[in-house]
């Protein structure tokens, strides 16, 4: 039988000679059986170089909420590219997009643009330190806020916790150990732990940063406990500590105004990327005017050659137009489809002898295999009794069926998926699960 991913395998071999691991982002290396190479994306589908078509639930890891190659968005990008690429100066597009964000995300009055989510977080943290004159940041275990050294901490296994770097492990070797001195890492969904840390470090904490829905780590789609986010807001106010919501996963997906508008909690600053720009590289930090205005001084600096790159802003405006028109009908449709997919996968899980577990937040579904049915509310409980090997095999089995999800089991929905795609997906998922059961 011919090898299924032969051309991809050869290309990966070639790539590995000149690109470490053959990939430009480490999380692409975990693909089964090796990183695949792709040729084309259109609507809800992508094609790999070996000629297989997939219903795509990876969607660039979330950004492509309008699907692949949306004609109006491509047209906006291309037309701005033709008109002029960038000027190291201002364009009306930048102003229009910042006003649009102000209109869509209640309480977020001013915005600075950058090129990725990691950068947006970096700006927010710098701003928080500049405004408060404090250096420490509280973050939550297992939340991901990008890969930059001063925040990529807090991924420890419980057993290792007590021993290294004051109990907080870095995401990577090569991070300066001195950065951990400014990090306080806490379990999520635990208001008492936060209250106590804010008291222990009274007057030292510049900001608390949190994903409003815990999207990253082993068991994504962990929702905040009832009242947790508003308690965090209250505690931050009591300690004159700024609250940053990292809405890079949830922004323009959970709801147009982000999870903050779903949960009715207004942070001081928020970071957006992914579904803010869709097919273009765009990050943004946005926040209350009196905080953001500090960036207009010559003393708190945020720069970047490609910041607010006009063709990308044109693309982002066209992209937001698609998801906000008709009272955000597109987003309502995405939420309906994610519910439908969730229910269908739940049915499969209930009928299967394998411990498949399914979770959902509006617009995204997670599947993984785990022995325990104990409630998951944070990173440590999420790690317990995971069957990562089976989760990887499930990813590979779905891929053979023409269903593309992330290796860790995230399924992102888009405007362009249809009821028919979901029905087909569920049939194929049933086949993949039967195969795993053999
Ligand atoms: N914050 C969150 C919540 C994320 O999920 C991510 C990326 O997945 C980031 C920050 C980093 O964004 P980027 O990959 O664009 O640098």
From TrEMBL:
SUPFAM superfamilies: PLP-dependent transferases. The keyword Repeat does not apply. CDD domains: OAT_like. Gene3D superfamilies: Aspartate Aminotransferase, domain 1, Type I PLP-dependent aspartate aminotransferase-like (Major domain). Its cofactor is pyridoxal 5'-phosphate. One of its GO terms (molecular function) is pyridoxal phosphate binding. InterPro entries: Aminotrans_3, Aminotrans_3_PPA_site, PyrdxlP-dep_Trfase, PyrdxlP-dep_Trfase_major, PyrdxlP-dep_Trfase_small. Pfam families: Aminotran_3. The keyword Cell inner membrane does not apply. It comes from the Bacteria. Keywords: Pyridoxal phosphate. Belongs to the class-III pyridoxal-phosphate-dependent aminotransferase family. This is Glutamate-1-semialdehyde 2,1-aminomutase. It comes from Biostraticola tofi.
């Amino acid at each position: 039988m011919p090898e299924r991913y032969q051309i991809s395998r050869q290309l990966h071999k070639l790539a590995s000679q000149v690109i470490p691991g053959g990939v430009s982002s480490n999380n692409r290396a975990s693909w089964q059986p090796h990183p695949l190479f792709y040729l084309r994306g259109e609507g809800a589908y992508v094609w790999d170089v070996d000629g297989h078509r997939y219903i795509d639930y990876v969607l660039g890891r979330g950004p492509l909420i309008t699907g692949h190659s949306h004609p109006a968005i491509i047209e906006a990008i291309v037309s701005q590219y033709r008109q002029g690429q960038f000027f190291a100066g201002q364009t009306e597009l930048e102003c229009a997009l910042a006003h649009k964000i102000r209109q869509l995300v209640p309480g977020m009055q001013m915005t600075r643009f950058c090129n990725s989510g990691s950068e947006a977080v970096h700006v927010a943290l710098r701003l928080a330190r500049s405004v408060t004159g404090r250096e420490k940041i509280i973050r939550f275990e297992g939340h991901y806020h990008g890969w930059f050294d001063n925040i990529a901490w807090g991924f420890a296994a419980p057993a290792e916790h007590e021993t290294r770097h004051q109990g907080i492990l870095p995401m990577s070797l090569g991070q300066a150990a001195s950065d951990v001195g400014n990090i306080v890492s806490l379990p999520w969904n635990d208001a008492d732990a936060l209250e106590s840390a804010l008291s222990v470090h009274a007057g030292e904490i510049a900001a608390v940063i949190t994903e409003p829905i815990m999207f990253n780590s082993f068991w994504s789609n962990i929702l905040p406990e009832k009242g947790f986010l508003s308690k965090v807001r209250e505690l931050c106010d009591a300690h004159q500590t700024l609250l940053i919501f990292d809405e890079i996963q949830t922004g323009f997906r959970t709801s147009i105004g982000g999870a903050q508008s779903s949960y009715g909690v207004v942070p001081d600053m928020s970071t957006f990327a992914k579904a803010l720009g869709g097919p273009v590289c765009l990050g943004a930090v946005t926040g209350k005017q009196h905080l953001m205005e500090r960036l207009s001084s010559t003393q708190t600096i945020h720069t970047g050659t490609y910041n607010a790159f006009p063709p990308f802003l044109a693309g982002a405006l066209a992209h937001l137009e698609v998801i906000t028109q008709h009272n955000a009908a597109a987003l309502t449709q995405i939420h309906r489809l994610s519910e439908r997919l969730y229910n269908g996968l739940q049915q499969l899980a209930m009928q299967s002898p394998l411990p498949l577990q399914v979770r959902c937040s509006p617009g995204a579904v997670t599947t993984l295999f785990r022995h325990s049915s104990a409630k998951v509310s944070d990173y440590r409980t999420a790690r317990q009794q995971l069957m990562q090997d089976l989760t990887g095999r499930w990813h590979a089995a779905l891929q053979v069926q023409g269903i593309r999800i992330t290796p860790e089991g995230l399924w992102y929905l888009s405007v362009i998926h249809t009821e028919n795609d979901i029905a087909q997906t569920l049939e194929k998922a049933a086949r993949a699960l039967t195969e795993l059961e053999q």
